[in-house]
Structure formats: structure tokens, C-alpha cells
Amino acid sequence: WPLKLGAVILATLLYAGLAASQDSNTYPGPVPVTAVNQPPNTVITNQLKDVEQIRYIAPADVGRLEAEDFRATVDLEDVEPDGSPTTVRVNVSGVDPRVTILEWRPRSIQVSLDQKVAKEVPVVVDLAQPPEGLVVGDVTVTPDTVLVTGPSAQVNKVVSARVSASIDASAVDVDRDVQPDAVDAAGEVVTGVDLDPGLVNITIPVYENLETRTLPVNPVVTGTPGAGFRIAGVSVEPLVVTVEGDLEQLQALVAADTAPVPVSGATRDVTAEVAYALPAGVSAIGGQTAKVTV
């Protein structure tokens, strides 16, 4: 026992001498806390609290330490991803192995971990009342659905992606990319989720003197069939289509062309469902495509 007691006293004196020969400091923070061993397909839903104060000792030649000289982490391996707050121990170490960490604050923080999920929702357009004397045509949104990803608690609230649009008094057609917002059933914006794509295109024709007119459908065929073959005939369904637009634009139209149907090198009948190739500001009412058989 005398030898053991003497060894303890000697060790204490040696440690005191070592501590005295080093620079004892307090770093006031903040030092960001990062997560390690986070389970796959999970997301942290709260802001991790920073480490506010660190006491350490280091050799004199190390100098004054900064935030990047410390590593503060929380281990999420055993945290249940159910969205509820969980108290997790904070671990602090020095980047330089010669630095000894004595104390830090806080010793633990709360972490909310949730499952990362995804679902598709429709894009809806919130269109402001157009100025007096103007009429808007069919609103087209491309794409008409977006993918919502994020914590399950937030994603489950989302029912649609809303974009807002307004009509200018100059009667200029709307054709622009807009960033949608994820909204819940009450129309409130849901935060903490991501939308893919982040931009959607809105197209809205605007008319000052809106008129309708029924036109014959003109199937457009391009290309030459294969050697030894010729085009025997072209049919289209429907034969006529009703279009709408400004009166001046409609007066110049004698037929509604279809998008080209290529038959280059064809050796058998070609059937295609194609859109109408109408001038800007003129749109088809009802069906937007025609069936062309060559």
C-alpha cells in the first residue's frame, strides 16, 4: 500500500506538471454539431444546437484554436426515426490529436429524426381575375405533377403544388416558368419539403375579342415512302375541329394543320396521334390531337 500510494501521488504530480506546461484555454464557440451514423432514407427535421463552450489543453506551439479545430458530433445509430425529439450525447474532439478536451457545453442535444418519403401531387394554378375586357383560354401546366420529398410528417400534409399567375392588361399571352409551393388541404404552404422539378411552365392564352370557328383538319405528311411504295391515301379523325382565338387571327385561317407525320422509308401503313399545329394565340376546343392514317 505505501508503494501504491506513492505511485498515485507521483502520477498526480507528473500530471500537474504536464498540465502546467501546456496552454489551458476556453473556446467560447459556436462549434457546429454534425450527425454521424445516420440511418439511410432518414432526415433530421430540427436544427442541431451548436456547442457553445469548450475547455481544452494543448501544447504551447499549437496556438489559439478556432471552430474548425474542433469536431462535434452526435451518433444517430440508435435513434428511432419516428419524428419525435430524442436526447443524444454530444462528442467533442480536437482535430489535432495533441489537443485534450476537458469539458464542453452542452453535453447533449435533442435530435428529431424522421423517415424520408416521396409522393406525386398535382400542380394547381391560382389564377387572378383578368382585367376587364380580357378573356383567358385553357391553362396549360407542364409538367402537371411534381414529386414531393422530405420527412413523412411534412410530406403527408401536402395535397398539391400551387403556382400563382396573373394576366397583364396588355393582353399578352402568359408563357413563363414558375416555382410552385407545396400546400396542404387548407391552402397553407408546407415547409421542409423539396419539389422536383423546382420550376413548372404555365401557358395561358389571352384574348381581347374571343371568337370560335370550326375548321377542316388538314393532315400534314412529310417524307418519301420506301423504294417501290407510294402514298395511296391519307385520312384523319376528326375531320373538323373547333378552335378559339382573336377574331383577326381566326379570319386568316382556312384549315387546322396537324403536326407533321413522317413516312420516310415506310413500307406499310403509318398511323400517328399528333397535335394540332395552330398559330400562337389559337387553341383547339376539346380534343387536342388528331389521328392521321397514311
Describe, in plain words, how this protein is organized in 3D.
The chain has helices at residues 2-20, 152-155, 247-251; strands spanning 23-27, 33-36, 42-44, 53-58, 70-75, 82-94, 100-105, 108-127, 135-136, 140-142, 145-151, 160-165, 174-178, 181-183, 194-196, 200-204, 206-207, 210-218, 221-222, 235-237, 240-246, 256-257, 261-262, 271-275, 283-284, 289-293. The mean pLDDT is 90. It is built from three helices and 26 strands. A hairpin with a 6-residue loop joins strand 5 (70-75) and strand 6. It starts with a helix and ends with a strand. Helix content is 10%, strand content 46%. It is mainly beta and 294 residues long.
Throw out a few tags for this protein.
single chain, mainly beta, 9-stranded mixed sheet, 3 helices, 10% helix, elongated
Low-confidence stretches: none
Helix amount: under 10%
Give the mean pLDDT.
90
Strand content: over 45%
- Biggest sheet record: 9 strands, mixed
How many helices in DSSP terms? 3
Order of helices and strands: HEEEEEEEEEEEHEEEEEEEEEEHEEEEE
The rounded distance between the terminal residues' Cα atoms is 108 Å
Helix/strand/pairing class, anyone? Answer: mainly beta
So what's the overall shape?
elongated
